[in-house]
Structure formats: structure tokens, C-alpha cells
Amino acid sequence: MKLIFEKSVPGRGCSLLPACDVEETSLPENLRRATAPALPEMSETDISRHYTELCHNTYGVNCGFYPLGSCTMKYNPRIDEEMAALPGFTGVHPLAPAHATMGCQEVLNLTKKYLCEITGMDDMTFQPAAGAHGEFTGVLLIKQYHDARGDAKRKKIIVPDSAHGTNPATAAMCGFEVVNIASSPDGCVDLEALKAALNDETAGLMLTNPNTVGVFDENILEITHLVHEAGGLCYYDGANLNAIMGVVRPGDMGFDCIHVNLHKTFATPHGGGGPGAGAVGCKGFLAKFLPQSASMQGDGHIQVRGFAGNFLVVVKALTYLMTLGREGIPEAAQNAVLNANYLMQKIRNTFQPAFDRTCMHEFVLNLEQLKKDTGVSALDVAKSLIDYGMHPPTMYFPLIVHEALMLEPTETESKDTLDWVAEVFRKLYELAHEDPEFMRAAPHNARIGRPDEVRAARNPVLRWRNV
Ligand SMILES: *Cc1c(COP(=O)(O)O)cnc(C)c1O
Prior knowledge:
Elements: H1 4-7, H2 44-56, H3 78-84, H4 87-90, H5 102-119, E1 123-125, H6 131-148, E2 156-160, H7 166-173, E3 177-181, H8 191-197, E4 202-207, H9 220-229, E5 233-238, H10 250-253, E6 257-261, H11 262-265, E7 278-282, H12 311-347, E8 352-353, E9 363-366, H13 368-374, H14 378-387, E10 394-395, E11 404-407, H15 415-434, H16 436-440, H17 453-458
Parallel strand pairs: 2-3, 2-4, 4-5, 5-6
Antiparallel strand pairs: 1-7, 6-7, 8-9, 9-11, 10-11
Helix pairs in contact: 3-12, 5-12, 6-7, 12-15
The structure holds pyridoxal-5'-phosphate.
């Protein structure tokens, strides 16, 4: 498909600007462009077709099954978008006086109240724009807590080897030394390794529960107790709350602060580069360190983003919370867990779960044996799924499982869809044994087959250049 710049034809256009109804003034000479901007020139029909073509070449949750583990690619009800599009929300100016923004403040306060209730926290900020940004904010709370007590020795953050890559990156960005601890064979925190790592230099622990292998760590109370006993604080990576919301609370597990990705669990899609919100909650004793709104800047508070963050994402979260309600929120979590276990059970007589026990909202398959037997890798299976009109699962994560495929079906998939998915996996398992070469060349029906992902990441070409 051609880029919009390549479709441009000089002289074409479709702008219909209204007649100027104010006095014309011109920019000072030194601020004017020497040449016109290189904007594409196209007819309205061609623009419409261009974006429709792009849309047809894009795969989203509205196209089909999207089991991208750890990302919670679930269907987000349209009503959430509708509420976020109300002019009273989209048109509000961030510097509008308080008396003119009472509705918006109520949205923020109510969402905070509900999410604090769900997570077991006492206070919350919506400033951070993403999960990683929320971690950064939350770990800064831990840093400020120790600094305020004059406990300068605490320079280390413990992170299990199953953690999301953003956890060690966050700890390092906040100036901490990262102490990696190995997981036990069942994918959970190894208590002995934790005890050995804890000392008076420990600032805190970062943990996800259920963890990245989709397993709930049953020792959680002991884990948080051990960290507290050593003088550290416990950070909960709640990027993905789908498995537990309304059922069990990180605050009750012993965590002191947490971030929640509104753009996973609470009605804004993850990925695609759109705005997100990594809401950061904390227990009362940390609340004084939370970022405040811009008007309070300069009084010693950290400030991680302007104003209240991505406000419309919060509007969507509140709509989602209110439509599901007290009964619907835990029901969504329970269905997410049920769907993952159902699919795992239907697949496990062919593909092997990495941890063969009841999972939470997602599970990890280990394809090492398949690769040994047939030469077909996790990547080949993922690419083959594209030919069946399915988005591939998360691949090669978590790092502690080699040849990993991580599936998160989410609560919004039907039993019919899950049965079909299991059937596709069964077919691919057979195909891997019958015709591995065919699978190694997959996908066969996609527009793009196997891009050089390493080169794309290392050498991204993000803008068009007229060469
Ligand atoms: C998605 C995710 C993150 C990071 O969230 P972003 O919004 O992508 O920065 C962190 N931890 C876990 C476990 C996640 O799944």
C-alpha cells in the first residue's frame, strides 16, 4: 500500500475553510516559513479511501480473537467511548476555574474512590500516562518515604526474574540498584531467595500477583511481611487487574503502593499508541508524597505530568466501573479466569502449559518439546495463527520460559470462540509434525510476513522522507 505522501498530486485538495470573519493580521516576517509545508495534496475521496484501506489492514479486538497475554486485549463497550466524547468532557480547559469543572472533579473523585476500594488503597493519582510511568511514580514514593526518614542506606529494589521488563527498568531509572531473585520451580517467589536478598539496604520489592506466568502466589502474605520486617516497602505492579478486581485486594495482600493500567482492565485499549493512564494508589502514610495537580507545583511534590493526566481515559474507566457495578466487576474477573482455564484445559493435551496448575487470567505454553521434535518454534506457531485470522499470543515472555506463548483470552470471548481457538491449536500441532517447513514459512495469507523485528526496533524509521 502506498503512503499518503506518495498518493499526493500537486494542486489537489479539498479544504473548505469558512470565510474569515475577524480582522486579518499577519505574522512578523522572521516567524514566516520560507517554503510551504510538504503536506499531501489529495481529494476528499482519496483521503477517505486511504484511511479506510489502513483500517482494513489493521487487526484489532473488533476483528477477532486477540489473546495477547499481559495486555488484556478485551472488548471495550462503546458506551465508554460515548461518555468520553461528551462535549462537557472534551471541551473543558485544564485551567478552567474550579466552579466550572465540578463535573470533571466528580469524575476524578468517584473513580479514585472506586479504584481505591478495588485495590485496597487510601489515595490515588491519575497523572501517570502509562503503566511504566505509574511504576516510576510509585517507586519514587518509596524513595521519598525512605529519604524523608533519613534512611539513606536503602538503595536496593528486589525484582523477581519473572517480572515485566518495566519493573527493573523503573527501579534503575529511580536510581536504585536492582536485585534480581530467581523464581521457584512453580513460577512463584522463592522464599529462601527472598530472605537471602533482604537486608537493611532493601528499599522495597516490586511484584505482580498473579505473576507474569499467570499464577497466584499463595505465599503473598508471608512475602510482604518479610519485606516489611526488613524495613522495605512493597510495590504492586497492577498493570493487569483483570484476574482479581473485586475479588482480592493488593492492599490486603500487604502492598503499600500500586499502579493500575486503566488502559488494560478499565475500558481503554492497550497498545496502538493511544493515551493511557497508569493510576497510582498508595496507603495513607505515603499519600503526602503523591503528585498533586499543576497548581500546587513547587511545594516539594513530585510532578510527573500536567494537570490530572489523560482525563478522558478516567472518564472511560468510570463509565466501565459504573456499568458493571459491584456485582459485574468481580464477575468479569471470574469469567476472565474461567476462560483462561477452559482454554488451557482444551489445549493442554497437545501444547504443554509451562506451569501445569490452575491459572488465573492467562497461561503460558512451553513449546520447547515441540521445537525439539519438529523444529517448529513458538514464533512459527504464532505466525501460523495469523493465517487463521487470529492475533498471535505474546511470544518469548516471560523470559524464564523458553519458547513461551502466553495466552490471555479475557472475559469477553465466548465459549464458541474458545472452542474454535482450541481446534486451531490442535490443527497446528498436527501440522507441525506433518509439514514443519510450511509452518516455518508462515504466515501465507498476510500482507506482511516476517519483518526484521530487531532492525525495526534498533533502527526505527518513523517518518516519511522524500528521497
Ligand atoms: C503492561 C504491563 C506493564 C507496563 O504498562 P505500560 O502501560 O505498557 O507501560 C507493566 N507490568 C505489567 C505486568 C504489564 O502487563
